[in-house]
Queue: 3 jobs
Job 1
Amino acid sequence: MGEVATATRRVPAAALPARLREPWWAPRRRERLLQVAFLVPAVLYLALFFGYPVVQNVVMGFQEYTTRTFYTGEAPWVGLDNYATVLASPLFGQAMLNTVLFTVGSIAGQFCIGLAIAVFFQRKFPLSGLLRSLLLLPWLIPLIVSGAVWRWILDQDNGALNRFLGGLGLVGENPGWLTSTSLALIAVIGVNIWIGIPFNTTILYGGLQDVPEELYEAAALDGATGWRAFRHVTWPLLRPVVNVVLVLGVVYTIKVLDIILGLTGGGPANATQTIATQSYHLSFREFRFGEGAALGNVLIVISLVFALLYLRANRKAVRG
Amino acid sequence: MTRKWSNTVIGVLLLAVMLFPLYWMLNVSLQPSGSAVGTPWIPLQLSFDGYATAVREQGGHLLTSLVVGAGSVVFSLLVATPAAYALAHFRVRGAGIVLFGILISQMIPGIVVANALYSAYNDLGLLNSIPGLILADSTHGIPFAILIMRAFLGAIPSEVTEAARVDGAGQIRTFVAIVLPMSRNALITAALFTFLFTWSDFLFALTLTTTEDVRPVTLGIYQYIGAYVSDWSSVMATAVLASLPAVVLLVVAQRYVAAGVSSGAVK
C-alpha cells in the first residue's frame, strides 16, 4: 500500500499510466488495495514478532543491557565487548562443541531410524495405518513432558532403564545417565532422537509414497530389487524430501531448549550446555541480556550459514 | 498372508519400544504416591492419588494453558487465513517476500525472540499476562498456519472464486461466504496444530512470566522436576494430563494430523 502511495507522490500524475492515476476508490484500484489488505495483518505480525526481535537483539548485542536497564532505562553502548566476553569465555568452546554433537547426533539418529521405519511401513500390512499414526505420539506431546518422563526413566537409582539393564545383568553399577559428565550428552541426544523419529518417519513415508510403483517394477525387470532398488530408484527420487527433512531438522534442533532444560538444565558441569541454553542462561539467569543477545545472534548466523551452504551444495549436486 | 501378519507383529513390537516411555508415564501416574523405589512394571495397586494432587496443584495451570491455547488459535487463524488465501490466489506484489520471510522466521531461535520480547513486554506491561502469552505463542502457530493453509487453499479452483465474483460478490464476501466454508479441513488442521504448539510452549512460559499469576502447565511441570522430586506419581499424572490434547488430537483427527505433519513441512 505504502509503495503505491509514495510512487504517486513522487511522479507527476500526468506521467503515470492510466491504471495508477485512478483514485483509490476506483473499482480496480480498490480491488488491488483490498488484496494487499488480506496480507497486512500477517505482515505486521511477522514484522513485530520476528523482525523486531532480531533487530532488537542485534542492537542489544552492542549494549550493556542488564537488570539495571529496566530501572534506569540506560543501556550504554559497549561496541563489541559482549561478543568479546562471550566468545572468549571457556564455556563458548564447550557449548559450541555440544551444539554440534547434539545436532549432528540427533539428526543422524532420527533420520536413519526414521527412514528405516518409513521403508518398513511401505510394506502395507494389516493395521499399518493405525500403527503409523500412533507412532506420532512422542512427537506430539509437549517437549517438557518428554523431558519429565525421561528424567524419571533415566534416574540413576530408581529409573526404569537402569532397572531393566540391571535385571539383564548388563551393567554392574548403575550408570548416572543424566548425572555423569561423560554420559549426559549421549542421554540427551538419545532422548532427542526418540522425539524426532516420528516426524522423520512421517515425512519420509510421504515421500516414499510418491515414488511411482512402475519404477520398482521396471527396476525389478532389470534385476534391481531390495537394497539395489532402494539405492538406484528410491533414494534419487527421495532426495528433495530428504533435503527438506534434514534442513528443517538441523534448523529446529540447533535452537532446542526445552528438552535440555527439562532433562539436565545444561549440567552436569555444563556437559550438555549448548549455544541456545547458554544464551538463555546469560539472559534469564544472570540477567546479562546484552551477552545473551550476542550469543543468540551467533546462533542465528550459524543457522543461516548452514542453510545457505547446504542448499548451495545441494543445488550443485543436483546439477551434477 | 502369514508374511503380512508377521510384519504387523514387527510393527507392534516397534511401537511398543517407541511408546514405552509413554506407558511408563501412565504406569507411574497410577501408582500410589511414595512408591518411587521399585515401581512395579504394571500398576498393581491402582491409585488416583497422583491425579488428585495434580489437579489440586496444577489445575489452575492447566486452565491457563487451555485459555492461552484457545486464544492463540483464534488469533492465529484471524491473522493467517486471509494471508494464506492471498498468497494462494492473488498475484500481489511482495507475496514472494512474505513467503521468504515466513521460511526465514523458522530459523530464528525462540530464545532470540524471548530475549527481545522480555524488555518490550516489560515496558508494555505484558509480562505475566494472558494476552502477552497468546501473542508470543502465536509465533509457533502463525507461520505454520499460513504455509499449511496456503497449500490447502491453493487447491480451490480459481473458477469457483471467479464465478462468485461474476455473480457480484465482493472480495470479502467471496472469502467469507465461499472460500472459508470450502476450506473447513484446512482450518481444522491449522487450528489443531496451533493449539498443540501453544499448549506445548515452554520457552515463552519460562521467560515471559515471572510470578504465579499466569502460569501454563508446561512451566508447572518444569517447576516440579526442577526441585527434588519425592512424589513422581503426581508429576507423571500432570504429564499425562498435559499429554491429553495430543492424544485427543490423534484419536479425533487422525487424518488431519498426518496431513498436517507432511504438507506443512514440505510445502
Job 2
Amino acid sequence: MSPVDTARSTAAAVRAGERSARSVVEAHLGAIGERDGELHAFNLVTADAALAHADEIDAQVAAGHDPGPLAGVPIAVKDNLCTAGVPTTCSSKILDGWRPPYDATVVQRLRAAGAVSVGKTNLDEFAMGSSTENSAFGPTRNPHDTSRVPGGSSGGSAAAVAAGFAPLALGSDTGGSIRQPAAFCGIVGAKPTYGAVSRYGLVAFASSLDQIGPFATDVADAALLLEVISGHDPLDSTSIPKPPLSLSSTLQQGVEGLRVGVVKELLDAEGIHPDVASRTRAALEALEGAGAKIEEVSVPAVIYGLSAYYLIAPAEASSNLARYDGVRYGLRVDAPTTGEMYDRTRTAGFGAEVERRIMLGTYALSAGYYDAYYGKAQKVRTLIIRDFEAAYERCDVLLSPTAPTTAFELGAKADPLAMYLNDVCTIPSNLAGHPAISVPFGSGDDGLPVGVQIMAPAMGEATMFRVAAALEGARA
Amino acid sequence: MPAGDGSEAALLAARRPLARPYDGPRMASLSRDEVAHVARLARLQLSEEQLDTFTPQLAAILEHAADVEALDLADVPATSHPYPLKNVWRPDVPRDAGIREAVLDQAPDAEAGMFRVPPVLGEAP
C-alpha cells in the first residue's frame, strides 16, 4: 500500500497555499497509472478534467478565496453516481454510451467543497453483488492480495482508497456494499441513516434501502466527507429535512460511560470465521479498556434479515430496472417491433446476476405470491426495527463483525446463495434504515484485514463515529 | 488456512442458525415453466441453458426465504419506508426545465423533439 496523506492534511496544505492542488492530483494520477492496470479500480480516469479542476482550485487560493473543506483532495466516485457529461455505466452494458445531463447532489456538494473527482470506479453491475466480479467490464482486485476480491458492490471505490489512488471515495450501500468492501480492503466505510444523504443522481437499485456513503483511510476523514455530502436536499423526497451532520467536533470525546452491545446472533453465527469472531471480541475488549460498558444483547429478528432482504431488494430492483428498455438512453438492440426491441435490448444489456434478481423480484411481486413473499418481508422489517429499538434502550451503539470472513478468492463463490450470505451482518442496518460503519481492526491468520461493524439508531452518526474513532485509536 | 478459504461449508451451514428451523409445508418448488413465464413478464429472452441454470438457483433462494414465509405476522404492520416522513409536496407549476435537447441527445433515436421507436404493432400480415 502506498502511504497517503489524509484528506484533512491535504486540504489544510492546499487551503494554506503550502501545496498546490495540481501537485496533489498529479501524484495520485501517477499512482493510478502505475497500478490500476493490475487492480482495475476505475472504469474511467478523468485525468484532464481533474487537472483542470485542480488548476481552478489553485487559482482560487491564489486569489485569496477558500475553495472549501476538501480543497484539492482527490476523490474516486462510484460509477452509479451521475456525473454531468461524463459516462456513468453502473458497470452494465445496458447504459452503453450514456452521459447524464446532470450531476448527482453528492457530486455537486463535493465540487462545492473543493474535492477533485479523479474518475468513476468499478462495481458489481447495478450494485448487485458482494465481490465486484459481476461487472460487465471485468473484476476489481484487492490491493492487499490480487488473487482476492475487494468485496462489493463498491469494490472499485474501496480498492482505490486502499491502493492510495485517492484518499477518499464515494460508494453506495444497499445491503452492505460500502461496509463489506471497506472491511475486505482494510479501510473505513460508512452507511449513513437512510435519508441523511440525498440519493438524487444515484442510479436506483432498491430505493428503500440504497444510501450513499464515504470511504476513507481513517475515521476522521470519513466523518469529514460525510459532513460534506449530508443534509437535506429538496430533489430527494426521502431526504431527511435536517442540516448536514456534525461529526468532527465530537469525534475525540472518547467512549467513557458509553454502552456498547455486541449482537450475539451476528457474532456466534456458524458462518462467522473464528478469526473474524476473535477480532470482534478483541474490539469489544479494546472499547471496554477505553471506558465503555460492554454487554451482550440479542436482536432476535436479525436471523430473518437475509431472507427478507433477498425478497425486498430484488422486488424493488425488478421495478426500478424496468426503465431500461432501449427507448430513451443507453443500449438499443434493433428489432422489427418495439416489443421485440425491449426484449432484445434487455437480454443483451443485463448480466446474469442482474437477470437473476429481476427474475426473483418479478416472481416475488407476481399475482398470488405478493403477500407470501414481499408483503411478509416488509413486515419482517418492522420486527427488525422493533428488536433494534429494544436493544438501543440498553445500549448506545451495537457491535458485530462486518463480514463473515476476510476477502475470498476470485471465483470462490459461484453459487449465488453462498455470495448472498456475505451480507448477513450488514443487511439488518439497511432494513432498519440505521447507520453503520466498518472500522479495520487487525487481520486474520491469512494476513488479510478484518473489519468490525458499529451500528447506531437513526441519526445516531455522531456517537457511532466517536466509538469508531476510539476503536481506531485502540488498534494495536 | 486462509480465513477466506475453507469457510464455504461453514458459510453454507450458516443457513441453519441464521434461518429459523422450519419443517412445515412449503410453497411448491419453482418449475422451469414458471421461470420461463416470469422471464416473459420481465421482458428477458432466456436461453434453454439459462432456464436450466436459473430454475434451481431461484428455487434455492426462495427456499431460503421459507423462514419468512412461515412466520405468522398477521398483527405486524409493514414497513415500506424506514423513516417516518410525511408526503412531500411542492406547488405544481408548469415550467420549462430547459433540458429537452440534452435528454434527446442521449436517445438511441430521436426525431422532431420525440423519441423514435420501431413500429409498436409490427407489419400487417
Job 3
Amino acid sequence: MKIAVASGKGGTGKTLISTNIFDTLIKNGTRAVLVDCDAEAPNSIAFFDAKLVSTSEVYHNVPVIDTSKCTYCGKCHEYCNYNAIFILPPVKIIQVIEDLCHGCGACTVACEFDAITEKQVSLGQVKTYALNGNPSLIEARMNIGVMSPVSIIKAAIKRVDAQAEVVILDSPPGTSCPFVQTVASADYVIFVTEPTPFGLSDLRQSVETLKGMNKPCGVIINRAGLGNNQVQQYLMDEGIPLLTEIPFDKKIAEYYSKGEIVCTKMPKIAEQLLEVVNQIIEKHGNSSN
Amino acid sequence: MEIAVISGKGGTGKSSISAAFATLNTKVVVADCDVDAANLYLLFNPTHESEDVYIAGHKAIIDYNLCNNCGICANHCRFDAINFIEDKITITETSCDGCFLCSRICPTKAISMVRNDKSRMYSGSFRNGKMVYGRLSPGEENSGKLVNMVREKAKQVAKENGIETIILDGPPGIGCPVISTITGVDKVLIVTEPTISGLHDMQRTVKIVQKFNLKPYLIINKYDLNPEMSLDIYEWSFNNGLEVIGHLPFDPQMVDSMVHGKTIIEWRPNSDISKKINLIWSKIMS
C-alpha cells in the first residue's frame, strides 16, 4: 500500500511525520519503504544512518539542430509549445534554448529534413539508500536550475520494489504538478497541517485538488495547541477524518532540528503514528496496487 | 525596488516576515508569488480591483468517436500520459504536459487540446498599499509563468501609484516558480531555520540565487530552537561570503498575530521581535 504524506503549506511537519512513520514501521517489523518525493528540497535521508547503494540519472532529450541540413522552414518552432526554439530564417539563425525545453520530442517529429537529433540532458537523480542492509530509502533529487521535478519524482516512485508492504511518499509542498504527480500513485493521502489560518487555507486547497482525483485522505494536526481550532471545525464540516494530533512541544522541534527521529525519544508519538497507519491499512489496505 | 523573500524549505516563516515588512512605515506593493499556496491575502484582506485569467497550459482530450485506437499517440508521448488501459487508448490527465504532439500526429484528428483557464490573478488595495496575488487552480502547472504575470502587474501598480518598494513573497523549493520570482530582482532575502532540513535547503537556495548573479541576505528564524546550528549557519555564511542580517527567536506571538489577522508589527509593535524585524528591514534598505 502506498501512503502519501502531503501538506499544501510547507513546513507543517510533513517530513517529521513521514520519517517517523517509516522508522516506527521498520522497528515494528514491517517491510516499509520511504520515498522522498520533495525533489526540489529532499531532506528525509538525513534522519537515517543510511548507506548509498545506487544512483541513477534521470534524463530528458533535448534537440540538437544540424544547421547544414536545416532549411529554416520553421516547422519545429511552430510545433514547439514551450518557445524553446528560436529562429530567424532571413539571417539563417536557429537556436535551441535548452532551459525552456520540456523534452517532448515534437520538434524531432516536425522536422522533415532530418536536421534534428537529440542528446540527453540530466534533470536529476534517483538515489537508493540501504538501512541495516535493506534498500528501503529512495530519494528524488532535482538538479539546481532545472525547472520541474515531475519526471524525477515519477522515476523515484517507479523504483519501489514490489515486495514492500507499506510505501511512504514524502510529498512536495504546494498543490501543483509535483504534488499531483506524487499523490496520483498513492492509495491514501495523509495531510499534515498546523492549526493556523495559513495551515487551513493551504489544507483546503490541497483537499480541493484531491477531490478531483478520488483518493481517500485524512489529516494529522501538528503543533496542536498553537493557533486556533478552525482546522478541526473545517474537518468536521467536510467529514474528513482527523487521524491524530501531535501536540506543540518545543522538544519535538529541537530533536527534529538536530536530525533525530522524535519517535525514538518520545515513544508516545510512535504509538500514535502506528495506530494511524494500522487504521489506514485496515480500512483502505485492500485497494493496494 | 523589488525585494524577494524566499526560503527553500517551507514553513520557515517567509510569509509572516514578508507580511511584517509590508506593514512597517512605507507604503508598499506586496506580490504573493507563492501561487499554489497563496496566504498573504488572509492577513491583508485586499479589495478586488482587477481580476485576470491565467492560462495554465493545455491538456489533451480524446474524442472516442474519431479515435481508431491505433496507438501512434501513445508511442510518441514522452510523459507517459497515454497508455492502453483495458485495450483502450487513455490519457492520464495528471501526466499530460500539454505539448500538443499527440494532437498534431493523430491520423484521425481525434485529439484536441483544451486550455486550463481556471487560474486567476487578482489585485487590489490593503491597509498599507497595494497587493497582487495569483491563485493557481488546484493541480495546474506553469506556476512560473503566473509568477511572471504577478510581478509584471505589481510593477505596473507600483508605477501607477508612485510606490517604490515591491515585496515579493516567494514560493518554497528551487524550481521554476522560484526562478521566476528571483530573476531580475534587486535584492533577495532567504529566511532559514536552524534545522538539518532548513540548512540543507538554504544551501541549495543560495546556489540557485548565485546562478542569477545575486547576493542573498540571510535571516535565521527561530534561531533558539538550535543555537548551535544557528552558529554553524553564521559560520557557513561567513565562509561563503554571505551576510546573515539578523536572527529572530521562536515566538508564539507570531502565531497569535496570524490568528488575529494581523502581522506581528501590527499586533505587538513594541515586542522584541518586532524591533528586530524593523532593524533587519533598515539594513536591507540601507
